[in-house]
Backbone:
């Protein structure tokens, strides 16, 4: 008798543990592959997973086996016209069917091991060991927005928070308490009155009776004086304010679009901004991006225009910083947003302006934001803006970072450098 | 009298599977197939890939290499580069067979006949399986192995356990006893004995190495080798004798060794096993048809799958990937039946003992008492050699050309048969490497010997494997390749030394 079982409903993820162990073991190679693929693919489609290819050499499980060579006899099917003793030269080794032990890996990909990782895993690998600068600190320090929760009741507050039920209950309790002694006496007197009333009328009795009645009247009068509701009884709802960490972030991307910025330089800047966007978005529920571009004048633009329209002209970086500062002030209150500013430029600035930039940064921007990252995209020597900014670094070691990018290979390492986890320092 | 067909639709249901199974079981019993009870489990493709990854077993300990296999299968399957098997069957009692849910009703019936009655009876009958595996205990043992290794991972850390498993896996092929039969233990006894064994072994090994410390200068004769005779089961030797291993490490070696031993018969009987299963699905389905339980449409679909399973492309075809074990096995089984029933003069001459014998008994006998190598040696007939047009090629690395050594003619039959049999001899396919000596009185280094066969050298992986041996042994490891005349022609060692080892 056979048992027939439907196993299809059982869990399908039996291999998950093994798969994770594999990924962990080859983390190093996989991360390298991820970094390489990052350079190749357009930054826009970071939103999907990736085919990872690592060398089979690394993942081989070695066993003893024979190499080619020596004498081997192999039997083949389908003889057409060979007869015993025929000799012919070796077919080229690729077509050689009998290479020992490797029959299963046919095809070209024998040296490479390719597999798929999900987008989440891909991003995990990219952003591994990166931390959002100042995230935690900021939350504790000056957060920010509040939520009001009711927490019990209080006796003093404004009338609009009065809780009727609680107040009346308190009043009732007070009335009972305050009239307790009174009630006992009253009952006692009433009993005496009833006892006397049942007797025959005689002047002595009626005198005592009227005295008693007077006493009862007095007591009842006193009792009426107990107020129905006293200020003492009032109960108000109590509200407390709980600070909540902001789950919103804004990134201000500032880019120089003056004549000195070529399309390739802009592409590099774009990659940097996209990485930043992806990274920050992973940490907040809601992330907004503001694009500010400038030559001698700064304007806020949309993404398309930011990256692809070209303008020429001189460069006044301070105009962009001023605009950024204004945007922050007007639209992104510090309590509600985690603010990040990233600036990309070739570092070329109108000479007298750099000092002004430094001042705006120091006084207006850096105190209210989480992090400012400056990337200079230039292959040569540092430009004047770099030198000015350089002096800011000691003043804001946690909020301010700057790096130089030479070509597209640098983008990712520079990004890592800027955001590498600082906890271990 | 013709019966009514069980089903005419491609869709399967559990009720239909049950009905087919009942009929197939009846026919199998009529043919005297002795089987374990069946446990038929329907699974989907993802579960099939899980099963692939864990070498077909229903449960297995965790290891990264299974994750690698899973990723590989997954990638190939999703890219359409490979299909998945229609079934997987496990040598266990009850015999567990996994059927894919994508199969049509015809495929399910074929697969039930193939796996649940063909393979199943082979597992129960073949001498290798009877001797080396314990079908009733394997699932329990897997459970034990999995939980034991999980426990080790908890105590020792995953990395520690992983590195031991890596080392063991690389020596898995050399972790089997080929000739000595071990005592059978059930998983239950196994776990009861662990503590006992751990303690005993540790004591035993300590005395072995304690003895080493004493120098006896009196006996200055030629020192004996340790072990006295070369030991073929390298994992066994290491488990019992490696001086530095902890008890849990020995137990893990033992687990891998047991698994290797469990799979060893399957490696040695692929042709026979598949041939036997194909023969029976073919015979049983034909009988179903003869009885009218299946209709022509079903039969056509069946023949189409059957012929594609046993298709053998010629050596010069683009699809050629070596000899198809299904073809060879199936053809041989059919051929034996033919020799029993309608022998020619040639057959009488070559197979006097089976010509005109009862085919069922003869096939049963062949199934029970052979493995691939000896089965081919015994039963490959000239008729079949002609039919498959087999020829053998001699590839000598010293010669400039390949040479046709034998073809399907009177002079070649025996040679082709011998060559083909060798091709399935594991001792011939895998390098013969054994434990040769331990420097008991010296640096405790371990020496392995590779006994060269037909001048075939070792592949480059040798150093990587020696590193694993070294990991287990704990002291220097040497490997010598020796010829049949006892000359050492090549030496390997780990750790690698600079120049002439000092």
Residues:
């Amino acid at each position: 008798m056979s048992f027939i079982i439907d196993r299809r409903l059982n869990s399908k993820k039996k291999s998950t543990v093994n798969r994770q162990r594999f990924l962990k073991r080859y983390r190093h190679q996989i991360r390298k592959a991820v970094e390489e693929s990052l350079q190749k693919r357009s930054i826009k489609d970071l939103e999907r997973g990736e085919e990872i290819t690592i060398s089979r050499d690394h993942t081989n499980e070695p066993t003893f086996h024979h190499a080619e060579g020596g004498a081997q006899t192999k039997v083949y099917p389908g003889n057409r016209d060979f007869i015993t003793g025929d000799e012919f030269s070796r077919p080229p080794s690729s077509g050689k069917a009998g290479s020992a032990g490797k029959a299963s890996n046919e095809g070209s990909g024998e040296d490479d091991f390719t597999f798929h990782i999900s987008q989440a895993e891909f991003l995990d690998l990219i952003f591994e060991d990166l931390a959002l600068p100042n995230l935690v600190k900021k939350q504790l320090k000056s957060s920010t927005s509040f939520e009001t929760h009711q927490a019990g009741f209080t006796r003093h507050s404004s009338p609009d928070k009065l809780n009727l039920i609680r107040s009346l209950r308190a009043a009732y309790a007070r009335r009972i308490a305050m009239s307790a002694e009174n009630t006992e006496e009253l009952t006692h007197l009433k009993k005496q009155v009833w006892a006397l009333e049942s007797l025959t009328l005689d002047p002595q009795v009626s005198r005592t009776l009227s005295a008693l009645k007077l006493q009862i009247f007095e007591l009842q009068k006193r009792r009426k004086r107990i107020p129905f509701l006293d200020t003492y009884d009032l109960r108000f709802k109590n509200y407390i304010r709980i600070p909540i960490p902001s789950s919103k972030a804004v990134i201000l991307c500032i880019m120089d679009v003056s004549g000195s910025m070529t399309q390739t330089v802009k592409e590099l800047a774009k990659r940097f901004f996209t990485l930043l966007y992806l990274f920050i978005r992973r940490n907040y529920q809601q992330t907004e991006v503001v694009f500010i571009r400038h030559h001698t004048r700064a304007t806020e633009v949309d993404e398309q225009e930011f990256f692809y329209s070209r303008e020429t002209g001189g460069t006044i970086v301070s105009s962009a910083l001023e605009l950024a500062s204004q945007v922050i002030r007007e639209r992104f209150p510090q309590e509600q947003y985690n603010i990040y500013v990233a600036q990309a430029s070739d570092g070329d600035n109108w000479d007298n302006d750099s000092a002004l930039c430094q001042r705006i940064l120091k006084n207006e921007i850096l105190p209210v934001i989480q992090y400012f990252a400056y990337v200079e995209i230039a292959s040569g020597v540092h430009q004047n803006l770099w030198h000015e900014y350089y002096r800011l670094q000691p003043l804001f070691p946690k909020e301010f970072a700057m790096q130089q990018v030479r070509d597209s290979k640098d983008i990712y390492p520079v990004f890592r450098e800027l955001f590498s986890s600082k906890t271990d320092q | 009298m013709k019966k009514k067909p069980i089903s005419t639709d491609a869709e399967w249901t559990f009720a239909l599977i049950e009905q087919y199974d009942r009929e197939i079981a009846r026919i199998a019993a009529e043919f005297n197939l002795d089987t374990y009870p069946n446990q038929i489990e329907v699974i989907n493709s993802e579960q099939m890939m899980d099963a692939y990854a864990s070498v077909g077993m229903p449960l297995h300990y965790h290891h990264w290499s299974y994750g690698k296999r899973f990723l590989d299968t997954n990638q190939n399957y999703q890219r359409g580069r490979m299909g998945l098997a229609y079934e997987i069957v496990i040598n266990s009692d009850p015999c567990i067979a996994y059927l894919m849910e994508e199969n049509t009703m015809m495929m399910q019936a074929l697969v039930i006949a193939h796996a649940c009655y063909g393979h199943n009876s082979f597992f129960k009958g073949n001498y290798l399986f009877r001797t080396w595996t314990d079908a009733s205990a394997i699932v329990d043992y897997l459970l034990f192995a999995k939980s034991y290794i999980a426990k080790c991972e908890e105590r020792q850390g995953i990395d520690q356990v992983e590195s031991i498993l890596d080392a063991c896996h690389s020596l898995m092929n050399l972790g089997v006893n080929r000739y000595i039969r071990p005592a059978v233990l059930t998983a239950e006894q196994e776990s009861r004995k662990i503590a006992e064994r751990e303690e005993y072994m540790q004591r035993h090994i300590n005395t072995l190495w304690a003895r080493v410390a004493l120098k006896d200068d009196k006996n200055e004769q030629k020192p004996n080798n340790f072990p006295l005779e070369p030991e073929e089961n390298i994992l066994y030797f290491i488990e019992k004798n490696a001086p530095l291993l902890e008890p849990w490490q020995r137990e893990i070696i033992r687990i891998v060794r047991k698994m290797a031993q469990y799979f060893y018969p399957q490696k040695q009987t692929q042709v026979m096993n598949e041939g036997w299963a194909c023969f029976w699905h073919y015979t049983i389905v034909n009988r179903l048809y003869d009885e009218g339980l299946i209709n022509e449409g079903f039969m056509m679909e069946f023949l189409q799958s059957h012929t594609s399973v046993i298709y053998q492309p010629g050596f010069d075809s683009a699809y050629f990937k070596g000899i198809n074990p299904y073809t060879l096995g199936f053809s041989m089984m059919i051929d034996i039946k033919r020799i029993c029933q309608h022998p020619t003069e040639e057959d009488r001459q070559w197979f006097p003992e089976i010509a005109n014998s009862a085919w069922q008994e003869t096939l049963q006998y062949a199934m029970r008492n052979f493995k691939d190598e000896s089965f081919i040696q015994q039963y490959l007939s000239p008729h079949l050699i002609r039919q498959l047009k087999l020829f053998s090629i001699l590839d000598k690395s010293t010669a400039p050309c390949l040479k046709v050594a034998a073809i399907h003619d009177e002079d070649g039959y025996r040679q082709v048969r011998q060559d083909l049999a060798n091709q399935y001899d594991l001792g011939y396919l895998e390098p013969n490497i054994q434990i040769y000596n331990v420097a008991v009185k010296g640096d405790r280094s371990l020496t392995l010997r590779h006994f060269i066969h037909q001048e075939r050298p070792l592949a480059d992986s040798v150093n990587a494997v020696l590193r694993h041996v070294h990991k287990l042994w704990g002291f220097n490891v040497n490997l010598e390749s020796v010829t049949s005349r006892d000359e050492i022609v090549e030496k390997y060692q780990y750790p690698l030394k600079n120049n002439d080892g000092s």
Notes: The radius of gyration of chain B is 26 Å. Chain B touches chain A through 102 residues (CB under 8 Å). Chain B has a mean pLDDT of 88. Strands of chain B lie at 38-43, 87-90, 95-100, 391-396, 401-406, 432-438, 446-451, 477-482, 488-494.
